[in-house]
Specification:
Elements lengths: L3 E6 L3 E7 L2 H7 L6 E3 L2 H10 L5 E5 L2 H11 L4 E4 L6 H12 L2 E3 L12 E7 L5 E6 L13 H5 L1 E6 L7 H16 L3 E5 L3 H15 L5 E5 H8 L4 H8 L5 E5 L5 E5 L2 E5 L12 H13 L5 H16 L8 H14 L1
Parallel strand pairs: 1-5, 1-9, 2-7, 3-8, 5-6, 9-10, 10-11, 11-12
Antiparallel strand pairs: 2-4, 7-8, 12-13, 13-14
């Protein structure tokens, strides 16, 4: 019997979110709608640039957000990651535990250094632009994996951002092999357009030829397929996994499976901050499918959850919010 619904590996990042104008974004030299990796010097420059602006600090990292969402909905999740022996590392570890997520961090001594951070700039059009200082997570490797826990999970999930780190990619792929040998389903996300442009071979290795679930948004699908023609995009993306969730913002989600397309409408909301939307979608979708729901119904729950997170500032919801979404969903199926 499976002990975890989801086992994930990804970058441990503490998010700091700032509301900025497009002019401020340009002044800071931040590329809009993209995730850009930065070094310590660039981090210091950006921090000086946003000094005095109100910020919100939360646990983050793409796969971290996904595991927390699944756990808050009532699922069981394990997250493998790497932090440093500093205040942010302790904050991140306690945040996972407070949200009911088991982690390798409970069994190791933290290394010296700095825990990774992601500076999220949100403009008035709700778009998020991310500058990520990886810090300790840049050196995540296979020692973060817990083979016995992978084997006891229903789904093994790889964060696409790990394709930017040689050791992180190696760890993700080693975990993939462990999961496949144990008969655990495989899932990944394309994460960001920049990952496709600069780290495509790593993403292709994560996808492989036997992926069960793939998550991506329409812009990522356009970059991956090299086309803006929607039929071409659907044809190309549908071949990458048994089930592909192609999210389209206000247009909803398209579930591609076995040559069939199922359109699932989005929740009717006013988006003010898209940070965390894709992570929330994946977490809610995987919660639903690991609890016996169809892929179409899982996408309905995922759309409702993602719609709620984009209608407020911040990358996560509270357990109470997600439990209410779950109750409404279960009453309708």
């Amino acid at each position: 019997m499976s002990h975890y619904d989801l086992y994930a590996i990804g970058n441990a990042l503490v998010d700091s979110e700032y509301e900025v104008s497009d002019a401020q974004l340009q002044t800071l030299g931040v590329e809009k709608r993209h995730m850009t990796l930065i070094d310590a010097e660039r981090r210091a420059h950006l921090l000086a640039g946003v000094h005095g602006l109100h910020s919100r600090r939360t646990g983050g990292g793409s796969a971290g957000n996904t595991t927390v969402a699944l756990a808050q909905l009532g699922g069981k999740a394990f997250y493998s990651c790497r932090v440093a022996d500093d205040e942010l590392g302790a904050f991140y570890h306690q945040d996972l535990l407070a949200n009911g997520v088991a982690t390798n961090l409970s069994h190791i001594s933290f290394p010296e250094g700095q825990t990774g951070i992601c500076m999220v700039m949100v403009t008035p059009d709700a778009e998020r632009s991310m500058s990520t200082f990886l810090g300790a997570t840049a050196d995540i490797d296979h020692t973060a994996l817990q083979a016995k826990d992978i084997a006891k999970s229903k789904v093994y999930y790889m964060e696409g951002y790990l394709s930017a780190s040689p050791t992180g990619l190696d760890a993700a792929l080693k975990g993939r092999a462990m999961a496949k040998e144990a008969g655990v389903k495989l899932a990944t996300t394309l994460s960001d357009m920049s990952m496709i442009n600069f780290c495509r071979p790593g993403l292709e290795a994560m996808v492989g030829d036997d992926l069960d679930y793939l998550f991506c948004n329409e812009e990522e699908a356009q970059v991956w397929s090299g086309s803006t023609d929607f039929d071409t995009i659907v044809s190309a993306m549908g071949k990458l996994a048994k089930v592909v969730c192609l999210t389209r913002g206000a247009k909803g989600c398209l579930v591609l499976e076995g040559g069939l397309q199922t359109a699932v409408p989005a929740a009717s909301v006013k988006a003010i901050d898209t940070n965390g939307a894709g992570d929330m979608f994946a977490g809610a979708f995987l919660f639903a499918v690991t609890h016996g729901h169809s892929h179409a119904d899982a996408a309905r729950l995922a759309n409702a959850s993602a719609g709620t997170v984009v209608s407020q500032y911040g990358n996560r919801l509270t357990p109470e919010q997600l439990q209410e979404i779950r109750r409404e969903f279960e009453a309708s199926v």
